[in-house]
Design a protein that fits this description.
By secondary structure, this protein is α+β, with helices and mostly antiparallel strands. It contains four helices and eight strands; from the N terminus they run H-E-E-E-E-H-E-H-E-E-E-H.
């Protein structure tokens, strides 16, 4: 994991001793039950004490930029918890939502967007400078994919727990 962070630090010319990467994922079911999940990786791997899942206001269902802004406001109230890198699952609109909310210039903002025909390893990576070229065989690219997938898994676990609670109350 350290090598992957080193590659990212070199790619984006960052000089950070103990870098951290947070990834945010927004999910909803046809616009209803919107949720946000935020995970954190450090050089040792997943740092689960920083995992957060949020139920979002119903009116934000289907509104990814608004949902991202809401989750960011909740998550980053404490400055000492800010990550070195913040990755959002989505494209330019989702990245712009981060840019409008994150005033701290010390955080590298990235977005990971599904590629052509949603095939694995065709993802596009964006920064505030536009589309970035990161080798799909690199450890850095793999780290971004792992973070995105972990954020999605957190969301799925939350949905499963909610479904189990609903089933218990119905029977």
């Amino acid at each position: 994991m350290k090598e992957a962070f080193d590659e990212l630090m070199q790619k984006f010319k960052l000089n950070i001793v103990n870098p951290t990467l947070d990834c945010i994922d927004i999910s909803h079911h046809s616009g209803s039950n919107p949720k946000a999940g935020i995970i954190r990786f450090n050089i040792n791997g997943p740092d689960k004490k920083f995992y957060r899942a949020y139920n979002l206001p119903k009116e934000l269902g289907g509104n990814d930029p608004g949902s991202i802004a809401f989750a960011i406001n909740k998550r980053f109230k404490k400055k000492d918890e800010n990550p070195s890198i913040l990755l959002v699952d989505g494209g330019k609109a989702q990245l712009n939502a981060l840019i409008s909310k994150i005033k701290n210039k010390d955080i590298l903002l990235l977005a990971i967007e599904k590629g052509s025909q949603r095939k694995v390893l065709t993802e596009n990576i964006y920064s505030i400078n536009g589309q970035e070229s990161i080798d799909v065989n690199s450890k850095a690219f793999n780290l971004l994919i792992k973070a995105r997938d972990e954020a999605k898994d957190l969301q799925l676990r939350q949905i499963e727990m909610l479904s189990e609670k609903i089933c218990k109350f119905q029977y």
